[in-house]
């Protein structure tokens, strides 16, 4: 969930209004002190070497796909999963050699008759998108020129990304067409939509189905909620997603509903379970939710200026592969981007206040490698699949506000999951510039049961040791 739209979060100011905690306020406040030049750190060394090893990612991936304990493992082939041949051909063309665990577990159930509803949880970057897209593509009738599958995602960027993957998978089935129901896409009243798959954000989709009646809900055979936990629980998405679901189920009671996410809190899971009928359920134990290929660290900073020094210091490492820096608010992201740009550093900026075209351009430039660093908010925490992202920095920790600031576990998991895609090695670094931020880091460590180790940029031995452990 983007804190940008979170009900209790600050929206554009640097310090959340709800908290009086001076430590936390300091964490989010801005700082414009000059960076000491002599602060060139050994941290660069470890990260440089670690990031250079990313080229070996492919070897590691195949190793992981052979390890039964890995979420990438399968002893099945795509041929054994009831998929149509043109889809199998497309998967091989995309470089997919064998299914991942979620694909192997879910696809045979999703493709059997009668269609089965599903709530599925699987770790970030392990192939959920392909799971639901293959189901839709396999099930729809390409000869029928009207929408048969609807997929909802929380952001413009994610909807587009899902569409791009769908197009690659449908490459050998040219009759299949995909349409986006997102900001900037316009329709004319009375001009029904002919594309078989419509992917979009909830508000726009609701307009097209209910207000403009351009999509006939009785003809929908597959309904997917990606990032389903926020789609059914968070203000801003919940009303529209549930209303759409109800409309479709009322008109097409046999429509197959699929809810996918890397995170489902117990309450949201129970709600999802009531919402759809007799679903097949796939979940992941909490201790397995964070992946071992993503090594987690924290850098203890003295104060705000030390934190800015750390990020400046990290910059050389950040630009070796691609990296994403998460800030708490739009204004703190903008501030950090401006600070770095003012010192000649090149970064992309993406947040929810930007116009759609600017957002699309920022993602494109980052994906293409024009920018190696993207500074953003939680708007990019979920779903974004950019395989070359090797490093995540939590400049500000993910927090929720319920009277007091609390660690936001789900967002932590989604943020660090922007690296380590499909088994690639990744690094997540938390910058902790206050006691409360440090306590959040400890909470993330305890909650997920995975170590978040200290990085001390002055301790050579320690850095060498960490480096060996991550190889
Ligand atoms: N069977 C496969 N073989 C090889 N690569 C795969 C396979 N399945 C998916 N991938 C690749 O893995 C990456 C991550 O997949 P995907 O985006 O579907 O993850 P996800 O589970 O939806 O993650 P998130 O929870 O972050 O949204 C993508 O780049 C995708 O192309």
Automatic annotation (TrEMBL):
Gene Ontology MF term list: ATP binding; hydrolase activity; RNA binding; RNA helicase activity
Superkingdom per UniProt: Eukaryota
Domain Helicase C-terminal: from-to ranges: 293-463
Record-linked PROSITE patterns: HELICASE_ATP_BIND_1 (PS51192), HELICASE_CTER (PS51194), Q_MOTIF (PS51195)
Designated name of the protein: RNA helicase
Catalytic activity from the UniProt record: ATP + H2O = ADP + phosphate + H(+)
Domain DEAD-box RNA helicase Q: 76-104
Location of the motif Q motif: 76-104
InterPro entries on file: DEAD/DEAH_box_helicase_dom (IPR011545), Helicase_ATP-bd (IPR014001), Helicase_C-like (IPR001650), P-loop_NTPase (IPR027417), RNA_helicase_DEAD_Q_motif (IPR014014)
EC number: 3.6.4.13
Record field: compositional bias (Polar residues): 1-22
């Amino acid at each position: 969930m983007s804190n940008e739209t979170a009900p209790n979060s600050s929206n554009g100011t640097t310090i959340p209004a709800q908290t009086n905690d001076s430590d936390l306020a300091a964490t989010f406040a801005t700082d414009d002190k000059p960076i000491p030049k002599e602060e060139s750190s050994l941290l660069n060394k470890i990260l440089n070497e670690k990031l250079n090893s990313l080229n070996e990612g492919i070897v590691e991936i195949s190793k992981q796909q052979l390890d039964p304990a890995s979420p990438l493992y399968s002893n099945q082939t795509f041929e054994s999963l009831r998929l149509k041949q043109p889809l199998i051909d497309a998967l091989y063309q995309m470089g997919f050699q064998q299914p991942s665990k979620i694909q192997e577990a879910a696809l045979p159930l999703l493709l059997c008759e009668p269609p089965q509803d599903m709530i599925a949880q699987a770790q970030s970057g392990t192939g959920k998108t392909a799971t639901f897209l293959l189901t839709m593509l396999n099930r729809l009738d390409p000869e029928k020129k009207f929408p048969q599958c609807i997929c909802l995602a929380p952001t413009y960027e994610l909807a587009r990304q899902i569409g791009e993957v769908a197009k690659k998978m449908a490459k050998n089935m040219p009759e299949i067409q995909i349409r986006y129901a997102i900001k900037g896409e316009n329709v004319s009243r009375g001009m029904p939509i002919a594309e078989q798959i419509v992917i979009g954000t909830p508000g726009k989709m609701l307009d097209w189905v209910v207000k403009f009646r351009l999509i006939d809900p009785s003809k929908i055979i597959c309904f997917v909620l990606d990032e389903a936990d926020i789609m059914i629980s968070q203000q801003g998405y919940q009303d529209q997603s549930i209303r759409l679901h109800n409309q479709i189920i009322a008109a097409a009671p046999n429509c197959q509903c699929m809810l996918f996410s890397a995170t489902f809190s117990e309450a949201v899971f129970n709600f999802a379970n009531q919402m759809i009928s007799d679903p097949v359920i796939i979940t992941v134990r909490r201790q397995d939710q964070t992946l071992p290929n993503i090594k987690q660290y924290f850098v203890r900073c003295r104060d705000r200026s030390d934190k800015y020094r750390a990020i400046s210091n990290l910059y050389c490492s950040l630009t070796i592969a691609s990296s994403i820096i998460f800030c708490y608010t739009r204004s703190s992201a903008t501030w950090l981007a401006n600070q770095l740009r003012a010192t000649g550093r090149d970064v992309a900026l993406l947040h929810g206040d930007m116009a759609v075209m600017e957002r699309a351009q920022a993602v494109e430039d980052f994906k293409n490698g024009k920018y190696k660093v993207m500074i953003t908010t939680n708007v990019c925490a979920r779903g974004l699949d950019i395989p070359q992202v090797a490093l995540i920095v939590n400049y500000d920790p993910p927090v929720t506000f319920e009277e007091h600031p609390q660690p936001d576990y789900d967002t932590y998991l989604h943020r660090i999951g922007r690296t380590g895609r499909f088994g690639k090695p990744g690094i997540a670094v938390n910058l902790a510039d206050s006691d409360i931020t440090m306590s959040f880091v400890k909470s993330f460590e305890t909650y997920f049961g995975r170590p978040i180790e200290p990085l001390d940029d002055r301790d050579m031995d320690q850095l060498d040791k960490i480096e060996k452990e991550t190889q």
